[in-house]
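Why do we bother with a discrete structure alphabet at all? Because it lets us treat a fold like text: something you can write down, compare, and reason about line by line. To make this less abstract, here is a complete entry for PepSY domain-containing protein. Read it the way you would read a sentence in a foreign language you are learning: slowly, and without expecting to understand everything at once.
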Amino acid sequence: MKMLIASKSLLLTMGLIVATPVLADPNGSSESTALSVPKVMRLLQAQGYHDFRKIKIEHDESEIEVEARNQGGQQVELEVDLYTGRILDVERD
């Protein structure tokens, strides 16, 4: 009888392990770790960017697009990683 109870417990435990769904974010990050727009602006200002005009959050691409001016005063469009703040691309207008 003890063997039967132990076997049922083992099967139930195995069933829970197998039946438990795994929920994961395909990008490897969650909304709670996304940088705020003010934080991104401070990071960009520290690198010499200013005169921010257009700020667009692209959640599906995990980016923030920003139109601004660089240290030389040229208009640029920046693509910034939403989670790390790293500048991914700079296009001069």
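What the structure line is telling us, in plain words: Helices lie at 2-19, 37-46. Residues 2-92 form one domain.
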